[in-house]
Structures are given as structure tokens and as C-alpha cells.
Description:
Layout: E1 3-4, E2 10-11, H1 20-31, H2 39-46, H3 54-72, E3 80-83, E4 89-92, H4 100-116, H5 120-131, H6 146-173, H7 179-189, H8 194-206, H9 210-228, H10 234-244, H11 248-261
Antiparallel strand pairs: 1-2, 3-4
Amino acid sequence: MLFRILGPVQVGPRAEACSSVRRALLTALLLRRGRPLATADLMEILWDEPPGSATANIRSHLTGLRRDLDRAVPGLSDRLHTYRGPAGGYVLRAEAHEVDLAAFTGHAQRGRQLLLRGEPHAAVTELEAGTALWRGPFGHALPPTRWFGAHAAGLDCARLDAHQDLFTACVLAGHTELLAYRIESVIAEAPYRQRLWTLLAATHCVTGDAAGALAAVERCASVFAEDLGLALPPEVEAVRTAALAWDREAALRLVAAYPARTSARPAENLTANRVPSPQAAVP
Length: 283
């Protein structure tokens, strides 16, 4: 992997761009991989209120970024092209397999398609590979601009979706060792995602831990009522019914039904400039 932006921005085996602005430039160019970014676009990306010296600053930092690229991998600056004229701008050439975001997107899409085709074991392999590419939150040490904030929100949503698909595949494939712990760790980040609570309760139920399933349901009810003023989500309520009846097969059916009710997200949506509310209760 030549370029890594899912966590601290890295080029090559270890090298990081030296300044926040250079990291931001590199990240923006990789998010728009293969498509030009004009100077005017870069001004809006790097600053919510661009300074008067923004154009000169961008040129200076691009020169520094070229040096950073060559220090990381000799000759890598040749990938960064400048186009002159009214439709000009800057483009960084990189293949999909060289960028962790593109690789993650591919794994996530293939994993979801495998789930939809009823192949959970293969889906686990794809989704484990995809989620493993994340080394930390997107946007690490980047300028806190609206543009990067929007991308951070969108990519974080994509990461959580991939984890949900992974946990779904694990339940259906019978890979339940330490699965409850893994789900709990993601719930700690995103406590209002009802699908995570469904998967946690279902994991306990299918492994014969009805008490654990009911405890998870009660915790979910408390979080949704106290934080959001909402009733227990119907899907989580359905898992409670299964746990009370010691019905492992019913819990499995609830887990299996979810992927078929949702459609695969196209790759371009993963980095769309939209900011989902972190407080919203989402599937």
C-alpha cells in the first residue's frame, strides 16, 4: 500500500508528510484520485476562510509535498501533475490498489455482495481485510475545516457500516468467539446504531446466553430512552422475544434478514460531502 489516509497520513512504508497543510493537500488529492483539483478548490479545502496569501501558500506547500513524496519513495513526485489554463489544477496519479481507501471500498463492497448472495464465510474474509486497513480515525492531524469534517463523517459512517456487515457475516458463519467483545467495542464509539445492539443481543442468543441477550436489550432500551427519548427499536425487541423463547434459529433469521433489506452503497457515496448527524439513531 503506497498511500494511507485511513488513520495517520503515510506515504510508503513509514513516511509522513511533514506539515498539516501538506498532509491535507495529499489527502485531498487522494480523495479526488485521478481528478483535477483547481487552486480555488484547494483554497476551500484547506481553509474555511482562506488568507490573502492562500494561492502562494498552496504553491509553496505543493513544492514541499513533492519533496516529501521523493523522500518517501524516490521519483514518486512524478505522480503529481500540474495542469495549466482555465481548466487547470493538480492531479495525483495513483492506482486503486495503492490507496488504502480504495482498497477498503473494494473489500466493503465485495463483502456486502457476498452477504447478499448468502456466502457469509467469504464475506468475513473480505470484510476483515477491509476493516483491518483502518489504523485510526480519518482526518488525523488534518486542518479542522468543513470540507475535511464532511469527509470524516462520511468515511466514519462507511467504516461502521463495514463493521456491521462483518459482524453480521460472523454470526451467520458461526464465527462467534470474542464476537460480543468486538461488537461492544464498536458500540462504545457509536451507541445509537440500533443494528449493533441487535447483533450484540443476537450473538448472545445464538451462543445460548439468553441472559446476556436480555441484558444487552435492556442496556439498549436505557440508552435510547435516556439519550434520545426513543422506544426500543423493533428489531432489538424481536431479539428479546427470541431470547425469552430460547429460540436460536429466530435470532439467526433476524440477523440474516437485514442485508437483504438494504442495498449496497456505491463507492462514490463513501466520500460524499455530506455530514450525517452523529446523534441520529441510524440502522
